[in-house]
Amino acid sequence: MAEHFHAIVVGGGHNGLVTAAYLAGAGRRVLVLEARELVGGCAVTEEVWPGYKVSTASYLSSLMQQKVIDDLELKKFGYIVDAKDPAFFSPFPDGQHLFMWQDRKKTLEEIAKFSKKDAEAYPKYEAFLERLAVVVESLLLVTPPDFPPTVWDLPDYLKLLGKMRGLSNRDIVSLVKIFTQSAADLLDEWFESEQVKVTLATDGVIGANGGPRSPGTAYILMHHCMGGVNGQRGLWGFVRGGMGGVSNAIADSARARSVVIRTNAPVAKITTANGRANGVVLESGEEIRAGVIASGLDPKRTFLKLVDEKEMPPDFVEGIRRFKVEGTSLKMNLALRGRPSFKALPGDGPQHGATMHICPSVEYVERAWDDAKYGRPSRNPLIEMTMPTMYDSSLAPEGHHIMGIFLQYAPYTLKDTTWEAEREPYSQRVIEVIEEYCPGFKDLIVHRQTLSPWDLEQRFGIAGGNIFHGEMSLDQMFVMRPLAGWAKYRTPVRGLYLCGSGAHPGGGVMGAPGHNCAREILKDT
């Protein structure tokens, strides 16, 4: 006799696993179907080369919701995060460098090397962002109201306004501005030092389809300033065992609640009857029935690949077709036989435990974006480098290190060429840029893996290789994610829900979309 399930979750990414765990905790019988050989989606640890355990896609943790951590008892299942300290290290071509530390006093001393005025402004800037971030964070676990609103939606909108009670009129104006202005404009209001501004501006463009002067990047900057590690706000950290440590902890919590997880089980189709989802068909031809289907896949793959378009309104289908998903982020993973030595700070030191930036000015980053706008990978890209082995030596053989490189900009669609043709020459160019700051860097490389947005799409099944399952622009956020009128995790197909990062509140390893979707499913069933 076939096993009966109340719900099937399509995709074993961290959000899908969160949805499954919550549903099982409420007594539902749940099946998770993952296409790959391991769960986690983009939050995985893979032994890419013998002895080297690599966080192949996502690489840092901060946004994971404390409520999810507590509800699913993730620490009991091995979830441990080591906070980065220092947070950032920026070397500059003139031989200077800037650290940002957990210790504010040390950070202010570093900033004062470049501008005493900026050192005085920095605590006020942090307090400013904190006030706004608290309001935005309070919306992460909220189901967005319908938009455009009807009279019946007014109570929901009044609740949203109530969350702004602690803000001054000036802060409310600032909140509106931060959703629309550029990261560069925001930072220009606060600081004068180019070194300080570019170090902070990187958070405004990581994963974004825009440069530091593009409208809306100020929100991306604030998005990356939310969350925290071990109860300390604003920190980012390395998950013990790599990013798979997040997903494996959630999966183990789900299994403890009797969730059935199947890997190597790609879904070919979501089936329907009388306008309602009623099961799935695997690529193997196997059919499985359930009254609820939750998709952790991105909106394009969910609605344009798995669901018969005739089951959805034409305007919904057209809206999903227009949903912007093309990514511009490239991930390079390296196995190193030692630590790089920077011209600006030679030898071993705390810099290797930080996010190491190569981006000397805001103009440099904007020019990198100019390349990408016209279908070219940035000749001089913004490069973020991290070495998780500085915190967890078990990830590599003794004396060796893992380095993750996250790069802007590498557009999904290239002009007059393909990523199959450009992957190798561009990888060499990236290493050349790093070599300019770290002489001898190329001699440290034992192994290399390069994942362009096209490669990310092929490997992880994310449309356009977009790490957020869709751009996090104002027209694709909150009540507009993925489309206006469809932001409540429900879809035009009854019984079919969206639980991945293509739903509110968007991308990042946070578990919020999975948590919120499970809540709405339980309301309905």
Strand % is: 15-25%
Largest sheet: 7 strands, mixed
Average pLDDT number: 94
Shape: globular
Count of individual helical segments: 16
CATH architecture of the largest domain: 3-Layer(bba) Sandwich
Tags for this model:
525 residues; alpha/beta; FAD/NAD(P)-binding domain; seven-stranded mixed β-sheet; globular
In short:
The protein has 525 residues and is an alpha/beta fold.
Molecular structure report:
This protein is α/β, with parallel strands linked by helices and 525 residues long. It has 3 domains: 5-42 and 62-81 and 241-323 and 468-524, FAD/NAD(P)-binding domain, CATH 3.50.50; 101-237, no CATH class; 325-460. It has helices at residues 14-25, 66-71, 104-112, 116-137, 154-162, 169-180, 183-190, 194-205, 217-225, 244-256, 299-306, 314-322, 362-373, 419-437, 453-460, 512-524; strands at residues 5-10, 30-33, 46-49, 52-54, 81-83, 88-91, 97-100, 228-229, 232-233, 237-239, 260-262, 267-273, 276-282, 287-295, 329-336, 355-358, 382-386, 401-408, 445-451, 496-498. The strands form 5 sheets. Strands 1, 2, 11, 12, 13, 14 and 20 form a 7-stranded mixed sheet that branches. Helix 3 (104-112) crosses helix 4 (116-137). The chain starts with a strand and ends with a helix.
